[in-house]
Amino acid sequence: MTTARRQATRRKLYAAAVTLIAEQGFSATTVDEIAERAGVAKGTVYYNFASKNDLFEELLRDGVERLRDALRQAASAARARGGSGVDALDAMILAGLTFIVRYPSFTQLYVAELWRTNRAWQDTLTLVRTEAVSVVEEVLAAAVADGELSDEIDVPLTASALFGMVLVAALDWQAFQPERSVEDVHAALSRLLQGRVGGALGGPSRRV
Questions:
Q1: pTM, to two decimals
Q2: How far is CA 89 from the centre of its chain?
């Protein structure tokens, strides 16, 4: 099987697994069901993954890496347009919301797994989460270094807070306020960003 074909097969298995697990839970989902949903033979699952645990761990890694890349690209594009650090952060919020709309089942599973500490894939999940948050940290740190934001900002904690804000707000939106548009939710979070982080614009003499 070529690399491209194998990657395409893996993505089909990821999509099948994430939907089934979101519907009925990890323990209740079988490899047979994943194979059937993906439209492949059971042996294809084991050709690509050593076990169901391995499949799910790789699914989590793939999803968070996609989110990380989307955030990085959004920040880079905002900077390329001449935007400030806060503009880059705002672009990342929109990119995060867009990702969550596209992959709602994955996002629900990811947030749920963050709170579980007894999973075989916990170390992997922690690592990829750190990689995703580090993209936000980089933008915040650069804005502080450039004098756009106060040097009193706790960069790691603020980055984690912004990352978590988007995830939790988006899940609440999807579950309880689905009639709202992406633009509407982004505008609300953008105002929050401007008030709490953007309020530090103007250099270190300002306070968040």
A1: 0.85
A2: 14
